[in-house]
């Protein structure tokens, strides 16, 4: 039987496929040069089955003293750990047919994970219409604080963040469980993700919905309807699609 906070989460969220909560510890924050040193995942199926995975990962670069102090992971601990590419088969069932969740996963963990897959000569597996439920976005919408404060705020527990992946995954699940109850976020996962983003249409908050109109939420055309910019300055829209990309690019392309 799953832990009480997972049971509670399942009573509120309508999962149509597994939800994989994940967290990474890395050598830094640069997706081009830094690498994963610890990965933790916990997958919850729509019927409540739970499985988890954790592994240290041997990076190609060095681990700084600052990262060792933050995570407790030293270079010596990683000497016999597998390279990321050696873990792809074990990671496959956690990602291949799952929605995702995490704490600041949109801004950090997911880009780092995609970069790690790319360096391994692969692409992050998963459905094209996959949804990402980010506990940090929910928390920022209501009470902006750290994961430690989020756990205390939503569960009443005192939590000292260890900066180890699997412990942070379980803490994120506790936060999500409290969030869906306190903020009445139950229902289908896509609807919950959209409710958390509202009025923004994309995870990076570049576009907003104002009534029936989509407007830019950044740059020189901030507050201007997308349709007006398409007519007046199509080159700017081309630049945004090409240079910024992401979900914003898909929405802009659909607005044309």
The shape, in one word, is globular
CATH class of the largest domain: Alpha Beta
Distance between the termini: 50 Å
For the record, what is the CATH homologous superfamily label of the largest domain? Ribonuclease H-like superfamily/Ribonuclease H
Radius of gyration: 19 Å
Low-confidence stretches: none
Give the % helix: 40-55%
* Strand order across the largest sheet: 4-3-2-5-6
SSE-based structural type: alpha/beta
Question: What is the name of the CATH topology of the largest domain?
Answer: Nucleotidyltransferase, domain 5
Helices and strands, in N-to-C order? HEEEEHHHEHEHHHEHEEHHH
* Largest sheet, strands/sense/barrel: 5 strands, mixed
Strand content: 15-25%
- Kindly give the count of domains: 2
* CATH architecture classification of the largest domain: 2-Layer Sandwich
Mean pLDDT, nearest integer?
A: 91
Overview of this structure, please?
The protein contains twelve helices and nine strands. The protein is of the alpha/beta class and 256 residues long. It has two domains: 4-197, Nucleotidyltransferase, domain 5 (2-Layer Sandwich), CATH 3.30.420; 207-255, no CATH class. Strand 3 and strand 4 (50-56) form a beta hairpin. The termini are far apart.
């Amino acid at each position: 039987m799953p832990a009480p906070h997972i049971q509670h989460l399942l009573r509120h969220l309508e999962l149509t496929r597994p939800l994989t909560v994940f967290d990474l510890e890395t050598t830094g924050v640069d997706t081009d040069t830094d690498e994963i040193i610890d990965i933790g995942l916990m997958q919850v199926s729509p019927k409540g089955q739970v499985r988890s995975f954790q592994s240290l990962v041997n990076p190609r670069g060095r681990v700084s003293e600052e990262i060792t102090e933050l995570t407790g992971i030293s270079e010596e601990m990683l000497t016999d750990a597998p390279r990321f590419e050696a873990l792809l088969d074990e990671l496959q069932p956690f990602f291949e047919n799952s929605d995702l969740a995490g704490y600041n996963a949109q801004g950090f963990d997911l880009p780092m994970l995609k970069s790690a897959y790319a360096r391994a000569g692969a692409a992050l597996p998963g459905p094209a219409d996959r949804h990402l439920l980010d506990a940090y976005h929910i928390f920022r919408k209501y009470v902006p604080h750290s994961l430690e404060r989020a756990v205390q705020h939503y569960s009443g527990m005192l939590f000292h963040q260890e900066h180890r992946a699997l412990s942070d995954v379980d803490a994120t699940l506790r936060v999500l469980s409290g969030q869906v109850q306190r903020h009445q976020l139950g229902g289908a996962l896509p609807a919950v993700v959209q409710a958390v983003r509202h009025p923004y249409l994309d995870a990076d908050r570049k576009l907003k919905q104002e009534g029936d109109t989509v407007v830019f939420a950044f740059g020189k055309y901030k507050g201007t309807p997308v349709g007006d910019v398409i007519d007046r300055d199509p080159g700017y829209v081309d630049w945004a699609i090409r240079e910024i990309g992401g979900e914003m690019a898909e929405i802009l392309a659909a607005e044309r």
